[in-house]
């Protein structure tokens, strides 16, 4: 096997089509907008479905134009674009592999060229593969998971830094598995731990420039990722029921965390992580 990681096009059933998922996740914002992101441009990776779609919908309601970066679920991306435009905001869709550094440069350039700038970067895209035994994780999967989940964040953030300025915000999506572990998501949990370290370190690196970096660590959220191969099929009926709240969360229960960290409401926060997880995380 070559040590050079080639860009991936699509692996297994991931990240999955929200258009084919039943029941459909709840992405709809729960309240009227108040202009907290008026005039802003947000680039959201993985915004075609799940948490990313809910964040795009809420950001648009609060006044932001949205760049939707995604892998290849064109029907879902078109739906998110329609949702944003129904809120009266502009949206563009950009398909490709965020694990490819050149594509990340293209995403940022297209966002700036077509939407006029970049104020908010939401690093949300990712993938996971369940394995009961560490020895079942082959080299291809290990490299792919790190490429998708953490290398992509480095690549797109590097490209974005030429355009972000004082008052800009970066929000990275990590996971509860960073804090509590996951016996069947060994490579995924490792990448999410790396994202936490990246978030806290980048926050200190950029704070003097007036760019705030924070994170969100969701628990079990009902998105296409899990039923499309991110969890064993036999576990899906019980998904999220082991949380203190006794159910999985919905994307629109996570999106307000991203909004809070993107707007001036969180102006004195950097390097912090919010935990919409149904009470699952006992310490941070």
Produce a short descriptive summary.
With 284 residues, the protein is of the alpha/beta class.
Cα distance, first to last residue?
Answer: 38 Å
- Return the structural class: alpha/beta
Strand order across the largest sheet: 3-2-1-4-5-6-7
Overall 3D form: globular
Number of DSSP E strands: 7
Total of DSSP H or I helical runs spanning 4+ residues: 8
Task: Give helix % range.
Answer: 25-40%
Average predicted local confidence, pLDDT: 89
**Radius of gyration, in angstroms, nearest whole number:** 17 Å
Spell the H/E element sequence: EHEHEHEHEHHEHHE
Low-confidence runs (pLDDT<50, min 5 residues)? 1-12
Describe the largest sheet: 7 strands, parallel
Strand content: 5-15%
What features would you describe in this structure?
By secondary structure, the protein is of the alpha/beta class. Helix content is about 35%, strand content about 10%. The protein is built from eight helices and seven strands. It has a seven-stranded parallel β-sheet, with helices on both faces. Helix 1 links the parallel strand 1 (about 40-45) and strand 2. It starts with about 40 loop residues before the first strand and ends in a 10-residue tail after the last strand.
